[in-house]
Design brief:
537 residues; alpha/beta; four-stranded parallel sheet
Length: 537
């Protein structure tokens, strides 16, 4: 009788069972458990660890692993071979009890595991490791490595976001509340039928803009805020400029250049000084910088629209918005100036905000060329798309990797930049687009505004939302100060209801991943109340 090599079969050895699968033994034929048990015995696992158990098969080593787990750890059973996954679930060697803390991930859901980890992580998990439990990992070793890297990046991204929130979270929330009255009077975001050119502030942007200038009407230019001064110097008017910077510094990029763009795509968390510059040109979108009930309420009320994920770079946000506003995926999007690198002595496009800012500060101690960036300890040389030597840093190369991970394979998304770091997109000259695509009737300014009825309804919702927030914050303050007399149990229950919908009061705390009722935590919340009440009033 010939055994079916496509089904896992138990093989009796002198010291337990092994598994024969696809004509390969997944454990030693002498002592199947020895290798994994030795590994588990020697491994050191820290608290807050997600463990990817690759190809657990007969589940050898899992009970021993659980016994030495510290607090806040999570186990996922990973196997891209359905037959081996079912073998682990059936547990033929009776290693697992019904309440064993172990989750098998179906083969069809493995690609969504990073998103699952992201949803689970409320600050408990700090790292991710993998353990290969059987020889089954060899059937899909490259896939497991990519999945492991994606899960590691998800956990790391959570903590990078936490660092950003600790530094800027208070400012983000404050800016949203300050910008709310302007949202109802903003323009709508129209659908674009022309080829879209996303222009960053890297060096490659200048050559692309020179090409576009020859056939300006055929392209919809969506530029980042830092390149607005370059557009002005080249006498090019962008269709839109995107800004999501929360700090005051970026307001200088708009000085004297307000007429170099038809409209400004501004994030709801953008610095209010920018949104006040030219209110008639504003079209708001929103960057969901954190998964919060506060954001969900604004979205459910349709106060915030055109919501995009937090990507950390205004260039990536511009690409995300370009893909959102194009009429359909047949409309090509070209990116240029998203170099995520720089040449020796020059870090941005000619005449860009950063370059002009450096020029104004020129002195004997600070020259026109920025050689310090190229020779900093974190700068790493590489050969760019045009064969020249460029330099990148850990944050910049991280953005490039995120770009490639997120956008590689996106239909009709092309790289028109001639220099800088490769982005994982098809290289395509932007000149060719002008020969194929033509202007599809430039949308009129009247057609791009929200209807008066929609603005009036949104204005009413915003007014109600602000009044509701003021009442809620005042109630929290009254509970803290004793003006509302409640028992300790009633007080905590009511505070939980009010604070869980207003995470902006504590999200920027170093320990603000979740609501805490310790006295120290509540004392800090009490301080924040006055800041946000002042904004709302």
């Amino acid at each position: 009788m010939v055994k079916d090599s496509l089904k896992p079969c138990l093989v009796q050895t002198s010291q337990g069972f092994s598994v024969n699968y696809k004509e390969r033994l997944l454990y030693s034929k002498y002592n199947p458990q020895k290798s994994i048990l030795t590994l588990i015995q020697n491994i050191n696992i820290l608290p807050g660890t997600i463990i990817l158990c690759i190809s657990p098969a007969l589940n050898y080593g899992l009970p021993e692993l659980v016994q030495k787990l510290p607090e806040d750890c999570c186990l996922f059973g990973i196997d891209a071979e359905p037959g081996l996954l079912e073998l682990s679930k059936s547990d033929p060697c009776r290693k697992l009890s019904p309440d064993f803390p172990f989750t098998h991930i179906p083969a069809g859901e493995l690609l969504s595991l990073p998103e699952k980890i992201s949803a689970l992580n409320d600050g408990r998990f700090r790292r991710c490791i993998r353990i290969d439990f059987s020889g089954g990992f060899a059937f899909h070793s490259e896939f497991y490595q990519q999945l492991y890297a994606a899960c590691q990046n998800t956990v790391a991204q959570f903590w990078k976001n936490r660092i950003t929130l600790v530094k800027f979270g208070r400012r983000y929330a404050g800016n949203i509340l300050k910008n709310l009255p302007r949202i109802s009077k903003s323009r709508s975001v129209e659908k674009v039928k022309r080829p879209i050119a996303v222009i960053g502030a890297g060096e490659s942007a200048v050559k692309t803009l020179e090409s576009i200038k020859q056939d300006r009407s055929s392209f919809y230019i969506l530029a980042v805020d830092a390149v607005l001064q370059t557009l002005k110097a080249m006498n090019i008017k962008a269709d839109a400029v995107i800004c999501e910077e929360a700090q005051d510094l970026i307001a200088g990029a708009f000085t004297g250049a307000l007429d170099s763009a038809d409209r400004f795509f501004v994030s709801a968390s953008t610095n209010p000084n920018v949104t006040k510059l030219c209110p008639g040109k504003n079209a708001f979108y929103a960057t969901e910088y954190a998964e919060t009930n506060f954001f969900k309420r604004l979205r459910s009320l349709q106060i915030l629209e055109n919501i995009i994920p937090p990507l950390g770079s205004v260039g990536l946000s511009a690409v995300e918005l370009a893909l959102k506003i194009r009429a359909d995926d047949s409309v090509p999007v070209f990116v240029s100036g998203l170099d995520f690198s720089f040449s020796c002595g020059q870090t941005h496009a000619k005449n860009s905000f950063h370059e002009k800012n450096r020029r104004t500060k020129n002195c004997r101690l600070s020259g026109l060329e920025n050689f310090a960036s190229s020779f900093s300890p974190d700068a790493k040389p590489f050969t760019g798309k045009d064969g020249r030597t460029f330099y990148t840093t850990t944050p910049l190369s991280g953005y490039a990797e995120l770009f490639a991970y997120r956008y590689t394979g996106t239909k009709n998304l092309f790289d028109a930049g001639k220099s800088g770091i490769p982005l994982g997109l098809e290289q395509k000259d932007i000149e060719a687009a002008g020969d194929i695509y033509h202007d599809n009737e430039r949308a009129s300014a009247e057609g791009n505004r929200s209807s008066p009825e929609k603005n009036k309804l949104r204005d009413k919702k915003i007014t109600e939302f602000i009044n509701e927030e003021k009442c809620a914050l005042q109630e929290i303050k009254d509970i803290f100060t004793g003006r509302i007399n409640l028992s300790p149990e009633e007080s905590q229950k009511r505070l939980a209801q009010l604070l869980s919908d207003r995470e902006y009061l504590y999200l920027h705390f170093p320990d603000g991943c979740r609501l805490d009722f310790s006295q120290d935590f509540l004392n800090r919340v009490r301080i924040e109340l006055d800041y946000f009440l002042k904004i709302l009033n």
